[in-house]
């Protein structure tokens, strides 16, 4: 297919609409397995495309993939990483929570609710 085919243009428009800086972080841990732009093949294809402009954003928990909102408030561990309240409850053992990114162990009560304005 040529570079100007309807398929190529449509694919590029779709990739550009969902492309974010998270898709290109060097550490690889911030990539979302459900994001097409984060996949190896489409990541290279989307690299020269512009980033998406998002007027309304939402927080998604790294542990569960669930949206963080009033029913699942964002909670910050002492190391600065933020997860959904429900996810922290589900991984809590003996009032201890292990951060999945750093493997640091904290008391559940050390997690603080995050307020976003």
Automatic annotation (TrEMBL):
Please give the superkingdom of this protein's source.
Eukaryota
User: Where would I find the RING-Gid-type zinc fingers in this protein?
Assistant: 35-102
Q: Which GO terms describe its biological process?
A: proteasome-mediated ubiquitin-dependent protein catabolic process
Keyword Metal-binding appears in the UniProt entry: yes
Q: What is this protein called?
A: RING-Gid-type domain-containing protein
Q: Name one GO cellular component term.
A: GID complex
**Transmembrane spans:** none
* Record keywords, A-Z: Metal-binding, Zinc, Zinc-finger
| One example GO MF annotation | zinc ion binding
Residue ranges of the RING-Gid-type domain? Answer: 35-102
- Family annotation (Pfam families): zf-RING_UBOX
